[in-house]
Task: inverse folding
Protein backbone atom coordinates (compact mmCIF):
# COMPACT_ATOMS: atom_id res chain seq x y z
CA UNK A 1 0.00 0.00 0.00
CA UNK A 2 1.00 3.60 -0.44
CA UNK A 3 0.64 6.65 1.76
CA UNK A 4 -2.45 7.44 -0.27
CA UNK A 5 -4.17 4.15 0.60
CA UNK A 6 -6.84 5.66 2.92
CA UNK A 7 -7.87 8.01 0.10
CA UNK A 8 -7.86 5.16 -2.40
CA UNK A 9 -9.96 3.04 -0.05
CA UNK A 10 -12.53 5.84 0.12
CA UNK A 11 -12.43 6.20 -3.68
CA UNK A 12 -12.99 2.46 -4.11
CA UNK A 13 -15.92 2.57 -1.67
CA UNK A 14 -17.44 5.52 -3.53
CA UNK A 15 -17.08 3.76 -6.88
CA UNK A 16 -18.70 0.64 -5.48
CA UNK A 17 -21.61 2.64 -4.05
CA UNK A 18 -22.08 4.50 -7.33
CA UNK A 19 -22.12 1.26 -9.31
CA UNK A 20 -24.63 -0.28 -6.88
CA UNK A 21 -26.87 2.80 -7.09
CA UNK A 22 -26.63 2.81 -10.89
CA UNK A 23 -27.63 -0.85 -11.08
CA UNK A 24 -30.54 -0.28 -8.70
CA UNK A 25 -31.84 2.69 -10.74
CA UNK A 26 -32.28 0.70 -13.96
CA UNK A 27 -34.87 -1.97 -13.10
CA UNK A 28 -36.65 -1.91 -16.48
CA UNK A 29 -33.55 -2.43 -18.60
CA UNK A 30 -31.62 -5.58 -19.03
CA UNK A 31 -28.59 -5.18 -16.81
CA UNK A 32 -25.07 -5.88 -17.85
CA UNK A 33 -23.30 -6.28 -14.54
CA UNK A 34 -20.13 -7.63 -16.13
CA UNK A 35 -19.75 -4.49 -18.24
CA UNK A 36 -20.34 -2.24 -15.24
CA UNK A 37 -17.92 -4.21 -13.12
CA UNK A 38 -15.32 -3.79 -15.85
CA UNK A 39 -15.98 -0.04 -15.97
CA UNK A 40 -15.64 0.25 -12.21
CA UNK A 41 -12.45 -1.85 -12.29
CA UNK A 42 -11.02 0.33 -15.07
CA UNK A 43 -11.84 3.52 -13.15
CA UNK A 44 -10.25 2.11 -10.00
CA UNK A 45 -7.15 1.01 -11.92
CA UNK A 46 -6.82 4.50 -13.37
CA UNK A 47 -7.17 6.04 -9.92
CA UNK A 48 -4.57 3.65 -8.48
CA UNK A 49 -2.15 4.43 -11.30
CA UNK A 50 -2.62 8.14 -10.80
CA UNK A 51 -2.25 7.73 -7.04
CA UNK A 52 0.97 5.79 -7.52
CA UNK A 53 2.34 8.44 -9.84
CA UNK A 54 1.42 11.17 -7.38
CA UNK A 55 2.97 9.26 -4.48
CA UNK A 56 6.17 8.71 -6.46
CA UNK A 57 6.34 12.38 -7.37
CA UNK A 58 5.86 13.40 -3.74
CA UNK A 59 8.54 11.10 -2.34
CA UNK A 60 11.76 12.74 -3.39
CA UNK A 61 14.62 12.51 -0.91
CA UNK A 62 14.05 16.16 0.03
CA UNK A 63 10.35 15.42 0.68
CA UNK A 64 11.37 12.62 3.05
CA UNK A 65 13.82 15.00 4.76
CA UNK A 66 11.02 17.52 5.31
CA UNK A 67 8.74 14.71 6.54
CA UNK A 68 11.26 13.82 9.25
CA UNK A 69 11.41 17.41 10.53
CA UNK A 70 7.61 17.69 10.42
CA UNK A 71 7.25 14.42 12.33
CA UNK A 72 9.20 15.18 15.49
CA UNK A 73 10.11 18.32 17.39
CA UNK A 74 13.54 16.83 18.18
CA UNK A 75 14.45 17.14 14.49
CA UNK A 76 13.95 20.91 14.26
CA UNK A 77 17.08 22.51 12.76
CA UNK A 78 18.80 19.19 11.94
CA UNK A 79 18.64 19.33 8.11
CA UNK A 80 18.30 15.60 7.28
CA UNK A 81 20.03 14.42 4.10
CA UNK A 82 18.32 11.30 2.76
CA UNK A 83 19.26 8.77 0.11
CA UNK A 84 16.83 6.37 -1.48
CA UNK A 85 17.20 2.68 -0.61
CA UNK A 86 13.96 1.48 -2.24
CA UNK A 87 12.06 4.04 -4.32
CA UNK A 88 9.01 5.36 -2.54
CA UNK A 89 9.50 2.96 0.37
CA UNK A 90 12.82 3.11 2.23
CA UNK A 91 15.32 5.92 2.83
CA UNK A 92 18.61 6.23 4.71
CA UNK A 93 18.96 9.64 6.35
CA UNK A 94 21.81 11.48 8.07
CA UNK A 95 21.36 14.60 10.19
CA UNK A 96 23.88 17.44 10.12
CA UNK A 97 23.69 17.70 13.93
CA UNK A 98 22.18 15.52 16.67
CA UNK A 99 18.48 15.83 17.45
CA UNK A 100 17.40 17.79 20.51
CA UNK A 101 18.56 15.91 23.63
CA UNK A 102 15.15 14.53 24.55
CA UNK A 103 16.74 11.16 25.32
CA UNK A 104 20.34 10.02 25.83
CA UNK A 105 20.44 7.11 23.34
CA UNK A 106 18.60 7.41 20.01
CA UNK A 107 19.48 3.91 18.75
CA UNK A 108 16.20 2.08 18.16
CA UNK A 109 14.07 5.17 18.84
CA UNK A 110 11.19 5.61 16.41
CA UNK A 111 9.38 8.71 15.17
CA UNK A 112 6.64 9.20 12.62
CA UNK A 113 7.12 11.22 9.47
CA UNK A 114 4.54 13.74 8.26
CA UNK A 115 3.98 14.78 4.65
CA UNK A 116 3.32 18.25 3.22
CA UNK A 117 -0.44 17.77 3.67
CA UNK A 118 0.11 17.23 7.44
CA UNK A 119 -0.67 13.50 7.35
CA UNK A 120 1.45 10.78 8.95
CA UNK A 121 3.07 9.07 5.96
CA UNK A 122 5.63 6.76 7.58
CA UNK A 123 8.33 6.70 10.19
CA UNK A 124 12.02 6.43 11.00
CA UNK A 125 14.18 4.39 13.38
CA UNK A 126 17.40 5.71 14.91
CA UNK A 127 20.44 3.63 13.92
CA UNK A 128 23.06 5.30 16.09
CA UNK A 129 23.17 6.31 19.75
CA UNK A 130 24.04 9.93 18.89
CA UNK A 131 20.94 10.22 16.67
CA UNK A 132 22.77 11.25 13.50
CA UNK A 133 21.67 8.27 11.34
CA UNK A 134 18.08 7.13 10.72
CA UNK A 135 16.37 4.56 8.49
CA UNK A 136 12.94 5.67 7.27
CA UNK A 137 10.04 3.80 5.69
CA UNK A 138 7.00 5.24 3.95
CA UNK A 139 3.43 3.94 4.11
CA UNK A 140 2.75 0.30 4.91
CA UNK A 141 6.49 -0.37 5.14
CA UNK A 142 6.57 1.78 8.33
CA UNK A 143 3.71 -0.30 9.72
CA UNK A 144 5.56 -3.55 8.90
CA UNK A 145 8.65 -2.14 10.64
CA UNK A 146 6.46 -1.53 13.74
CA UNK A 147 7.24 2.18 13.75
CA UNK A 148 3.61 3.28 13.46
CA UNK A 149 0.30 1.44 13.60
CA UNK A 150 -2.00 0.87 10.64
CA UNK A 151 -4.57 3.16 12.27
CA UNK A 152 -2.03 5.97 12.71
CA UNK A 153 -0.95 5.95 9.05
CA UNK A 154 -2.71 8.83 7.31
CA UNK A 155 -3.76 10.60 10.53
CA UNK A 156 -3.57 14.40 10.60
CA UNK A 157 -0.63 15.85 12.53
CA UNK A 158 -0.39 19.63 12.38
CA UNK A 159 2.63 20.11 14.65
CA UNK A 160 5.77 18.01 15.21
CA UNK A 161 5.40 15.37 17.94
CA UNK A 162 7.03 15.85 21.32
CA UNK A 163 8.09 12.91 23.47
Result:
Amino acid sequence: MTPLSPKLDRLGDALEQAATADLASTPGRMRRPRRRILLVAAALALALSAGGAIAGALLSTSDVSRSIVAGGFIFQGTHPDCTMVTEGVEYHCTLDKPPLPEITDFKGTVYQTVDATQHVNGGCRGLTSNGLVWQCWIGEAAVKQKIISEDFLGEVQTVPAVG
The two ends are 28 Å apart (CA to CA). Residues 110 and 125 are 4 Å apart (CA to CA). The chain has two domains: 5-58, 61-144. The chain is about 40% helix and 20% strand.
